[in-house]
Each structure stands twice: as C-alpha cells, then as structure tokens.
Amino acid sequence: MSAVNDRIRDLEIRHQVQVQRLGSGVLRRLIGLLDRADAEIVDKLLSRGATLKGSFTSVRLQKLLDAIREINQAAHVTVGKELRSDLLAIAKYEVGFQQRLIQSALPIAWDFVSPTAEMLKAAVTSRPFQGRLLKEWVTELSDAKARRLRDAIRLGVVQGETVDQIVRRARGTRALNYADGIMQIGRRGAEAMVRTAVAHTTTAARDELYAANDDLIAAEQWVSTLDTRTCPHCMGLDGQRFELGKGTRTPAHIGCRCIRVPVTKSWRELGFDIDELPPATRASMNGQVSATETYDSWLRKQPASTQNEALGPPRAALFRKGGMKVDSFTNWAGEELTLDQLRRLDEEAFAKAGIAA
Ligand SMILES: [Zn+2]
C-alpha cells in the first residue's frame, strides 16, 4: 500500500488539472458576455456615421462616450454577479470533493467537519487575492476598459480619423485576429482575473476545510507540478511543508496553477498504537510529505483515462507514444469543463476506485 500522503498528492494533481479546465469553462461564458457588450459598443460607434470630426468638444461626443461607458459598466456588473455565483458553487463543490478525496486515500473511515456556507461565502468574497477583493477586481477591469475606450475615441477624433478607423483602433483588425485592438486588452485582463479567482476560490474552500479538520490534517505541502516551468518563484516553493493557513498562499501570482496539498498526521500523532497494525498499514500513514513530481513524470504514471482528460485524446495518444514530452503542452489547459461535467467525471473516477458517495 503506497503512503496515504502520496495518494492524496496524486489525486490533488489530477483534480487541479480539472480545476484548470473548469476555469476555462467559466471564462468562456463570461468572455461571451463581454464580447456581446463590445459588439454593442461598435454598433454605437458605427451609428455615428462616417465621421466624428468636429464633434470633439461637443455635447454629442460626450453623449456617445457616456452611452459606451454605460454599456461597458452594465456588462461588467453582470460578469461580476455571474462570477460570484459560479465561485460560490465551486467553493461548495470543492469542500465536498476534498472530503471524498482525502477519505478515499485513508485506510480508515474519518468523520469530517464541514465548514458552513456562510464561512465559505466569506472566504471567497471577503478575502483579497493578489491584493484585491473580488468585487474590486471587477470594478477595476470595468473602469480600465472604459478609460481605454474613451482615450482611443478622443485620440481618433483629434487625429481626424473616420469612424471605421476608430472602430479598428478599438476592436482591432480581422487580419490580426483582433489581437491589435484595445478591446483585446480587456479580454486578457478578464481572463487572468477569472483564472486567478477560481484558484483563489478552491484555495479558500480548502483552507476552511483543513482548519475545521486539523485533528486529521497536520500541514500542507506546496506542489507546483503544473507550474514549475513558467514560474521560478513557485519552483522554489515546490515540496515545502507549511503549517495550516501559514506561509505563501496559492495562487501565488496571476495565473498560478500551484496547489497546497493536505498532509495527514501519522498514526502515532492520531493516537493509534502502531505496533498493533499490520506492517503495510503501519507504513501508509507516516505523516511524511511526498517526493516532488514534474507534470511529465506524474502524468506518465496515470491511467490512459486521466491522460486523455488532461491533454485531450489526440495529444494524450502522442504523449503515450513517447514522442512528445508534456512540457510541449505547458500552456495547454485541456478542454473546457462546466461544474456539472466535472461532477460527473469525479463520480466516474470515484466509482472506478470503488468509493461510495
Ligand atoms: Zn505557481
């Protein structure tokens, strides 16, 4: 029987791959909302006819800017509300999932204490990540985008550009897949914020769960398996042991994919007389942190189904053939997942492992 803390680490890495996909799913829906607002803003501009020339100081330009500001703000208010409710659902799911994950690795049944819904809500919405609260992140995104749009339109007007030219400045050009437009900056900002918010939420949920079960959970171990190549800071933290709730939190930076995995107490720390246990069981709860893993070496040891989930079937086949190191897919976040799809995948995995709900 492999050590409990090794099994927990493996399950946590698999789960973190899924959380990345979940983030992609949340992101797609929210970006859709922002894209619709952008289209509305472009329509507003185009409705001004061929030129805005001569209207720079006029009341008409101000009205146009006000209308655009309102469209932008309304879209971000909706994004903020949707994101908040998505995150609360994810936090609730994460707490239940983590209990089953840890239980599935333990050789004994454990009676977990669940944090209340109120505690989870407070942890997600009232705790800052990267220095800001969730609602401050959304307001900042909204304001920054409104400012960039306003400046771009004014600049275009001052330079005597046509409405088409101003729209190009805002939206970018088709030839460059709109990557050159200022609206794209807002999209990238939203993407980074949403991914970081999802990581913050799963961390917040775990913090509450571990704190409520500190009779079982002794510490946490930093695992940067998915992140080592992209972030030297996180590479340095890999494998380190932390007291519960102390030290650097994940996400450590925007886009951080690292996790802190729970380390359970040893039999002796739990008050068992280990001399009465069979030797294999005795070794399983040793209270030790796991060895560090790279994503490549971790994924090689996983069943084909997990490799398929992590990379998508075509890439996974390539990976298994051995021609491709997983490092080549470093930025690959997998196919998008909704929370319902994740729930089904987890059910299947637990069923396969013979763990009842
Ligand atoms: Zn990291």
Structural description of this entry:
By secondary structure, the chain is mainly alpha-helical. It has one domain (4-344). 60% of the residues lie in helices and 4% in strands. The protein has 12 helices and 3 strands; from the N terminus they run ααααααβαββααααα. It has helices spanning 4-46, 59-105, 117-125, 134-158, 163-171, 182-212, 232-237, 279-284, 295-300, 304-311, 313-321, 339-352; strands at residues 217-223, 241-242, 259-264. A 3-stranded antiparallel sheet has the order 2-1-3. The longest helix is centred in the N-terminal third of the chain and has 47 residues, at 59-105. The mean pLDDT is 87. It binds zinc ion.
Strand content: under 5%
- List the uncertain runs: none
Count of helices? 12
Number of strands: 3
Shape: elongated
- Rg measurement, Å: 24 Å
Order of helices and strands: HHHHHHEHEEHHHHH
**Structural domains: how many:** 1
Average pLDDT for all residues: 87
Features:
12 helices; binds zinc ion; 3 strands; 60% helix; 357 residues; elongated; 3-stranded antiparallel sheet; mainly alpha
Entry summary:
The protein contains 12 helices and 3 strands, in the order H-H-H-H-H-H-E-H-E-E-H-H-H-H-H. By secondary structure, the protein is mainly alpha-helical. It starts with a helix and ends in a 5-residue tail after the last helix.
